[in-house]
Design a protein that fits this description.
254 residues, alpha/beta, Rossmann fold, 2 domains, 6-stranded mixed β-sheet, 10 helices, 10 strands, globular, binds adenosine-5'-triphosphate
Amino acid sequence: MTQMLLETDGLTVRFGGHVAVDSVSCGFRAGELTAIVGPNGAGKTTYFNLISGQVTASAGTVRLMGEDVTRDPVASRCRKGLGRAFQLTNLFPDLTVLENVRLVIQARRRMGFNLFSMASSHTELTVAAMAVLERVRLHPLSEQKVGGLSHGNQRKLEVAILIALDPVVYMFDEPTAGMSVDEAPVVLDLIAELKAEKDRTILLVEHKMDVIRSLADRIIVLHNGALAADGDPATVMASDVVQEAYMGRDLADV
Ligand SMILES: Nc1ncnc2c1ncn2[C@@H]1O[C@H](COP(=O)(O)OP(=O)(O)OP(=O)(O)O)[C@@H](O)[C@H]1O
């Protein structure tokens, strides 16, 4: 059986008396893109926050390649291979697009700053950073300051930074939100390329059905914080649970 890269087991968080994520047990395999769907307030973002470490679990576990990371802070999970697009954008607005990506590659390789100043390593890092920028079609803007980028290009840069980190688990929160119609396909094609690499797993919180249809191998549905459905897209989309959830009726009646 393909290895589970990420697993949550009984993952739960309570905010006061409210259970935002309710005992979610789920495994994510290499080569699989899982869309996480559900109505507003279902717990999708909170589930992502629990996995990436922004929110601490009240109960349950998160395992990354078999290792329990439930108590690890965000940065530690990131080093161990968990990559979430927005959390990584500690972008330096006064540095260029290229410099931002180059710093991430440098940090990943744990090279010292003295090495950075050496011409050979600097050139090698630049080549690697440019290759990443070409993948997101940002290479023509490599010398632009990040602070001056359009919203769509900043989102692309988030994806570039994520690729530069080379995680085993990619987490995307509505990756094309706010992008123009000609910008979105670049990011969606890139996610499809990452999926084709087969040795990663990709989690996608997404509301747009056309995006889900084109990319997802599997859909999980959260409702009131709990796992309401899990399976292949055709079956899940046709299920009562999804039909009812998206029509806003109470799932308790289904
Ligand atoms: N820090 C918090 N403190 C208190 N309640 C919270 C907190 N974070 C989330 N919640 C609540 O948990 C529930 C789940 O919220 P969450 O944002 O995860 O839903 P979602 O499925 O991502 O919704 P949307 O699609 O609107 O983004 C909501 O009722 C929300 O109000």
